[in-house]
């Protein structure tokens, strides 16, 4: 584990030229959105991801998959960003270069005011044709799933399922930032899903300091230039920002 803590991590952040951040479901937990893999509370405790978040599942049970996403879209629609999201906005405003790479599909980083956001796994607010991939603005909410008006194929959420490739543009922006940042912040992710899981260690391999913010050390690497902020990111990130920029005016202070 890192030997530098608190104020020294703040100093590290304050001196950074390019900060890259990878967020996962944990950063939105304090906004009331369940994570995926935590026993009892995670989304996957009630639903098997292999049954729902795959193209195969959608082909077999389109209505079940569509309804699951419709319910999550409704829940996300009532959620608001939390102090962890706002802390990242403050960092973006304070450092010369900043890239926020998220695995989340909830849109809460943009809602908080983050600007340079890379959505690796899509966005639940968008819907596309499952055959042609064309974005669809309006659909018949009484159907499950609704169908494409142009080709008749079922519509699906514009998210990345297991076995699917990540969007090209998001992938190149994420890997570019990862290779060039000097501080990489990994927030609220179990680091189990590839290729996103490789990003912190790719940054580390290029010489970056990696700060891991999570409620648990489970599954997280330790070593030189790897630092841990243990606790809910809605508390640890604002504290880190206050240590870096004591006078920062923000939504959470
Ligand atoms: C807090 C907190 C608080 C809680 N504060 N922290 C074998 C080996 C290696 C790879 C593979 C393999 N077999 C298949 C693969 C590839 C596969 C993969 O990685 N599978 C693994 C399960 C093994 N990956 C893919 O298929 C990807 N595509 C790909 O690789 O293409 C090339 C390829 C094609 C074909 C074959 C092989 C390769 C695509 C992955 C797409 C993932 N999609 C999902 C669903 C998105 C849509 C939706 O939301 O429904 O993305 S799955 C799900 O997991 C979602 C998440 O973005 C993603 C990551 O989860 P995340 O965010 O880390 O959440 P959790 O719940 O796991 O963790 C929460 C964390 O927060 C925990 O650590 C908590 O402690 C912490 N926490 N509260 C701070 N308050």
Q: How does this model look, in words?
A:
The protein is an alpha/beta fold and 253 residues long. The protein is built from eleven helices and nine strands. The strands form two sheets. A six-stranded parallel β-sheet has the order 3-2-1-7-8-9, with helices on both faces. A three-stranded antiparallel β-sheet has the order 5-4-6. Strand 2, helix 8 and strand 3 form a beta-alpha-beta unit. Helix 7 packs parallel to helix 11. The model has no long low-confidence stretch (mean pLDDT 92).
Radius of gyration: 19 Å
Helix tally equals 11
Return the average pLDDT rounded to an integer: 92
Shape: elongated
* Helix content estimate: 25-40%
N→C terminal distance: 29 Å
Give the names of the bound compounds: ligand BJW
Write the layout of secondary structure elements.
Elements: H1 6-15, E1 18-23, H2 26-29, H3 43-46, H4 49-52, H5 55-60, H6 62-77, H7 83-94, E2 97-102, H8 108-112, E3 117-119, E4 122-129, E5 135-136, E6 155-159, H9 168-180, E7 183-187, H10 199-205, E8 209-214, E9 226-230, H11 233-244
Parallel strand pairs: 1-2, 1-7, 2-3, 7-8, 8-9
Antiparallel strand pairs: 4-5, 4-6
The chain binds ligand BJW.
